[in-house]
Amino acid sequence: MKQKSRLQLKRACFIFLMVLPAIIIPIIFTYYPMIRGSMMAFQSYNLMNIKNIKWVGFDNFKKLFQHSASNTFYSTMWNTVKWVGISLFFQFVVGFAMALLLKSRFKGSSVYQGLIFFPWAVSGFIIGIMWRWMFNGTSGVINDILMKLHLIRLPVGWLADKSTALYSCIIANIWYGIHFYDHDHGCFKRGSGGVI
User: Given 3.90.470.20, 3.30.360.10, 1.10.3720.10, 3.40.605.10, which CATH number is that of 74-191?
Assistant: First the structure.
């Protein structure tokens, strides 16, 4: 009987040791930073003296919602709304149109299918570098094309200009996210009528 209980205890200890990393890792890398970050919202930090931490309660939130020239909270929120709204709208509309086009058979449809899923195969880091080069204010391909089409006379610093930087990033984000809508509409499946 004692031998059986020892065996059960060993088995329980083994199971606990196997489950322990799955408990510790989320606590260290998810829950602790989340709790620590929430605590920081109610504290005041001095970057010149990092040990000088003061509890200020809701003062940080009061400053956040105050209207002042130095407060960028509302403009940041508005930019976030524009980023999400414009990106999702065009990703859905263009992605849905491309998904419908994938259903039809035409000359070069296999090439089209390969190109359509190109953003999905490339990492976000590489895509960021690619679009940064394309939007380059001096040697970017977008400026080159627009100047050859006589739509602009001088190169535009797309990512350096405050009026165009957000929309340039939105264009890159739309291009990167379109393929998710293609995939959601079942374009990987083939049936008797073509791609469905």
Answer: 1.10.3720.10
